[in-house]
Design brief:
Number of helices: 19
Largest sheet: 6 strands, mixed
CATH topology of the largest domain: Rossmann fold
Number of strands: 23
Radius of gyration: 30 Å
CATH class of the largest domain: Alpha Beta
Distance between the termini: 53 Å
Helix content: 25-40%
Strand content: 15-25%
Strand order of the largest sheet: 10-15-14-13-11-12
Shape: elongated
């Protein structure tokens, strides 16, 4: 295995975490350190000898720091192939010394543009030029140069140098080089997305002209939706904490592709509720949901009542810490995944008896992550904003003669939160704190009403109905009335709205229009 002795290192970092300790570790191997600006000042203040890059190149840093490392003595020392006689002859002729290690992290462009007061000029000044150029040069020459961009790698590098007498292996350098190109791809992608999403006068575009995104592989999966499909799970580099991608698995088998899809749907839905809530998801649709003013165990039992048959093998998500009582109830049925902000010690002990059930802990931050949803099509990508609409249903338009009662408003609010997560065409029946029936994914809305009635295990009389889109005909309202539905929430907007409203009035139903649709394909 090829090993490179580290004799000279160039250090220029924005993130100073662990810097002094690492530099001292390099000095233990008599490594010459060349450095720039604030990095050099901090190392000197800590008693570490460094050579200023301006002294090393013979040119001062200039143009407000825009020009400092772009010099043949730097890049020749990084790019020269040590085993190429012509390269080494040219280096000697022009007095270029070899640089064996580069320690660089980049200006925080992404942090800069995330600030509300960020200007175009401010963003431009935080586009790093010298840093990416150096680390790309070093990474290209990984057989001879070590390049470190992540302070978390300092201890690993020093440990290897201790074990090898100051050398770094080519295998380590290759891994570090791959990390560099992942970093520069993300960095350039962030710049491209930002500049493509604004006009020169500072105007903001809804979507950039080109879109670049980077995900990091979290794990290989056993298979995809079906056993003949290979699959893997990737996370966003800047993922929000309250998301399935940030979950901490406490126990159980590895998550499958379908587990992750269903868990994401369950967690998003339960996060919409303020009261203690439980959601049970099967094949991306809720088959149980309930809230409780008392505890999670009560909410879970009520959610189970919606459809106990479909709940078998389902995904459960709750928005409170799971306690002993809730855990005991959850062990009475086979569940694939249980998701919660926390599990108390009694709950962990009880659920540990179910060794295969996956326990996922996700922090509940109280804010739902905004951003984009992606849907791949052959040869292209659909991008849309996440469906973050949250309305006060007591302020929407009452279109029937009779307005909803107080209890009906509570039930309509519950139902509207649930129907948003049901595959279209979507119909749900609910009380003020419990899902009663679900009609999902049908080609006609009246069929979804029919299925919601058929699937209901609890009495539908006195329930309300939520529809994710308008009723194209009155038949769905007539059928719901036959099931005992007393109030309906729907977007409205059909050419036959008058006919639909008339049907509701004939059945003494209350109906409100949200003017917001919640299709979920």
């Amino acid at each position: 295995m090829n090993m490179n002795t580290i004799k000279r290192a160039l250090i220029s970092v924005t993130d100073k975490k662990g810097l002094v300790e690492f530099a001292r570790g390099l000095k233990d191997f008599n490594v010459v350190i060349v450095s720039t600006g604030g990095t050099a000042a901090q190392l000197r203040a800590s008693g570490i000898d460094v050579i200023d890059v301006s002294d090393y190149t013979g040119f001062p840093e200039m143009m407000d720091g825009r020009l400092k490392t772009l010099h043949p003595k730097i890049h020749g020392g990084l790019l020269a192939l040590r085993d190429n006689e012509a390269h080494m002859k040219a280096a000697a002729e022009h007095h270029i010394d070899m640089i064996d290690m580069v320690v660089v992290n980049l200006y925080r462009f992404e942090d800069t543009i995330a600030k509300q007061d960020c200007t175009l000029d401010g963003a431009i000044e935080n586009i790093d030029i010298g840093g990416p150029t150096m680390i790309r040069a070093a990474a290209k020459n990984y057989r001879h140069v070590s390049v470190i961009t992540d302070p978390d790698d300092y201890s690993v590098i020093l440990e290897e140098m201790k074990n090898t007498g100051g050398k770094i292996s080519e295998d380590t350098n290759f891994a570090l080089a791959a990390k560099v190109f992942r970093l520069t791809a993300r960095y350039d992608g962030a710049i491209s997305n930002y500049l493509s999403s604004i006009s020169k006068d500072g105007g903001q575009k809804t979507f950039p002209e080109t879109f670049t995104v980077q995900f990091v592989k979290a794990q290989d999966l056993r298979y995809g939706e079906n056993p003949h499909q290979h699959a893997a799970f990737y996370r966003e580099t800047d993922r929000p904490p309250s998301a399935i991608a940030g979950a901490h698995q406490l126990q159980g088998k590895e998550l499958s592709y379908n587990n992750i899809m269903d868990s994401d749907a369950a967690w998003q839905m339960v996060s919409d509720f303020e009261l203690p809530a439980t959601v049970i998801v099967k094949h991306a649709n809720p088959c149980g949901a309930a809230t409780s003013g008392s505890d999670i165990a009560a909410a879970f039992r009520k959610a189970m009542e919606t459809d106990p048959v479909s709940a078998f093998g389902g995904i459960v998500a709750v928005n409170r810490t799971i306690d002993k009582k809730a855990a005991q109830d959850m062990t009475k049925i086979f569940l694939e995944v249980i998701i919660a902000p926390g599990f108390d010690e009694d709950a962990k002990a009880i659920l540990s008896a179910k060794q295969n059930v996956r326990l996922l802990e996700i922090p509940l931050t109280g804010t739902r992550p905004a951003g984009y949803d992606f849907r791949r099509v052959v040869g292209g990508l659909l991008i849309q904003e996440r469906d973050m609409d949250d309305i006060d249903i007591r302020k929407v338009h009452v279109v029937t003669k009779r307005p909803p009662t107080k209890e009906e408003y509570q039930a309509l609010d519950f139902a509207w939160r649930v129907v948003k997560y049901v595959k279209s065409n979507a119909i749900v029946y609910a009380t003020k704190d419990q899902l009663v029936g679900v009609g999902a994914g049908q080609m006609s809305r009246v069929d979804s009403v029919k299925i919601a009635t058929m699937k209901a295990k609890l009495p539908t009389k006195g329930c309300v109905l939520a529809s994710d889109a308008f009723f194209p005909f009155r038949d769905g309202v007539d059928m719901a009335a036959g099931a005992g539905i007393t109030a309906i929430i729907q977007p409205g907007g059909s050419v036959r709205d008058a006919e639909v409203i008339k049907a509701a009035d004939e059945h003494d139903m209350a109906m409100i229009f949200t003017e917001t649709r919640h299709f979920r394909h």
